[in-house]
Amino acid sequence: MTPEEFRRHGYALVDWVADYWSGLAEQRVTSAAPPGTAAAALPAGPPADGDGFAGLLDDLDRIVVPNLTHWQHPRFFGYFPANTSGPSVLADLVCAGLGVQGMLWSTGPACTEVETVVLDWLADLLDLPARFRSGGRGGGVIQDSASSAALVATLAALYRAGGARWRRGGVDDRYTVYTSTQAHSSIEKAARVAGLGDDRVRLVEVDDTFAMRPDALREAICADVAAGAVPVLVVATVGTTSTTAVDPLAPIGEICREYGAWLHVDAAYAGSAAVCPELRWVHSGLEHADSYCFDPHKWLLTGFDCDAFWVADRAELTEALSVLPEFLRNAATESGAVIDYRDWHVPLGRRFRALKLWFVMRWYGVEGLRAHIRGGVALADRFADWVEADERFEIVAPHPFSLVCFRLRGPDEPNEELLRRVNATGQAYLTHTRAGGRYVLRLAIGSPLTRESDVAAVWDLIRAQL
Ligand SMILES: Cc1ncc(COP(=O)(O)O)c(C=O)c1O
Fold first, then answer.
1. Average pLDDT over residues 82-86
2. Ligand 1 contact, 146 CB (< 6 A)
3. Domain count across the chain
4. Is residue 288 part of a domain?
5. Strands 139-143 and 307-311
């Protein structure tokens, strides 16, 4: 493809994406097609000779779009909605166009330096504790996902516990990990990948707001220590996946300090809230954490994938992960004066994801990002008010952010049926969870396209299905 051909097709595809966004509200949110529909519409193999993109836009419209769940749709209220934006998409285009592989500082100096600076900006934006800034012993790095952040936090915790012994011989079977019953499944997955296994993960009980109970954490740790175990890691959650509960970081942090356990704070979704000063309480006690992450791709107008991860002591992370083969040796690394992000995560290669954060922060500015968060919180409050005013329904958990968990009073089955009916219309999409043993509907607001009229429409739709 010549630069001229790229320009021509590129313009057409940018137009196509812009049209996709502007027409989204008229589409179904989910596809009604049965499994196999998209696959059956594709030819048996690739063309023998390139087809010059003939019919590509038609194929996107015919095969791809009708067979998608539209995560950017204004009435997509499932999981935590995707949060891409124009500046983020344009940054991804530049990233792909540059094709830089930033594994070492020397393989893309600006790729590394922009990342270090924008993560410091982001730390300022969220008012994170000073210990996470790159000017001291800490620093930030972009991971693909909060799951990867949990994994590298686990590995750093294992290095702290076992040092060179762990690096050579692997995990000690006395090591234990603690998180709440409401924590994301990625914590258990990380423990498996790190060689600890499910049996070494303790799921700590929560209180009636679904937040981890520090007394139960202490009890679990004490019992384990008495039995000869070594607590290596506690993962606290700020904004749990099911109900956005916030674990109390200060008392949890004190317990971690007492027992020498690493504290990782997973704020995958709710961390973004801290761009607003009035929501910074979410990070109360974060100064106790050894590592922290949140996903700008969940609520900060940044396209998937982008997890911002910080450590208080970068040496613990890089010593856990660094393996330096001869072919990567270079003068800049040996000078000790540069950051090589390959030592901050599992893959060696890495793309220029920092461009997304840089573009997004430049386009929206601090106030624009705050307006996005505040808009989501206000819409969630509005929805919760409507639910509360209808005595057939109950709100099942506090809703400090943009997720409302609610249900029809009474047994689970009518709730399951209600969700099925609402989603079958294709007019909106909600997901569910279980909280306190009960089936619960979740309405998560996040798409920058969602307006009050969309939230009102889903409330009408829900009531119409009863
Ligand atoms: C609290 C929490 N942690 C981790 C994750 C996993 O996120 P990711 O897809 O970035 O791995 C989620 C996803 O919703 C989450 O809510």
1. 92
2. yes
3. 1
4. yes
5. antiparallel
